[in-house]
Amino acid sequence: MTTTSVAARLAPLGAAVAAALAGALAGAGLTVTAPVAGIPSPGIGVLVTLPLIRALLGVTAAATVGLCLVPLLLGDSAVADRAEQVLHRARRWSVVTSMAWAATAVTALLLHTAEFQAQRDAIGLADVTSYVSDVATGKALLGVIVLTLLLCALTVLAVRHGERVPAEIRAGLGVFALLPLPATGHAAGWMGHDYAVVALELHVVSAVVWLGGLAALAVLLARDTPLLATALPRFSVVATACIGTTAVTGTISGLTQLSTHGSISAALIGTPYGGLLLAKLACFGAIALAGAKMRWRILPAVVGRREDCLQVRTIRREDCLQVRTIGHRRSAFAVWASVELLLLGLAFGIAAVLSRAGFG
Prior knowledge:
Distance between the termini: 51 Å
Largest sheet: none
Helix content: over 70%
């Protein structure tokens, strides 16, 4: 595979990453305030960089989980040889994304330590150790680092041994690695702490599976109609569940946080947190519309193209698949998946700031 073709395949994921960074940067611009005289501050650089890294943490987590889900979405494909090529590529790329996930978690830990030790000009290993020992977020990030490194080791084994390292274990470990951080955010201080944390964890998991699964299909299968027609209907069921879960849990979490300010309407309109929540709600509305287009228009067309292809009796099956692959390089699925991923990335960036934003 040439460098150009790899770049073209990764373009939808790149759009999600760029949008996540843009959303986090815009959100940071709304919430980061100038240092107050006499109060230690880690500096604008740390305060702005931290939400960017948290946004990257979310996107790399989504990419990893999505790649681990590909074998489950393809199942026992009728085009076994082509499916194995795709699965091998997914396993190799999941090594890279899991390493990136671990690296962003390490970077986030260092930045959180610098924020916590704002009075210091530089931090050392002792400061990081103290942060992990004393602060819940430090413990959570250490847990994420350990779990992602373990997942990276499993993905390396999967590259060598294929599906003898079950995709269910890899995907399950990826989802498990998502759980520590939400337990240390805003929800940790809410009334009904246990329920709030569960709602936030469900929100994070559903959003990650949604973005990651769609990104995996767009990157790996957009140019392969027969395999896409196998995986897309299965993912559509998963995505529908994710949309519903994200909407319900996001509403619960947002209203719970706004209620701590007193008047929900005043907090929604007159605070940075409320403004970010409205921006995220607008993103969700646009994403839902794109998802509806995908479910009701694109999915039937993709399945129909596969059926047309398999009904051709005068062309060898391999030739038919090749024609379909080449003829739909910029298919409607690829276009709408890129749009949806861009919007999801933007929502991830805003969410990264929301997880740290207050009402000031």
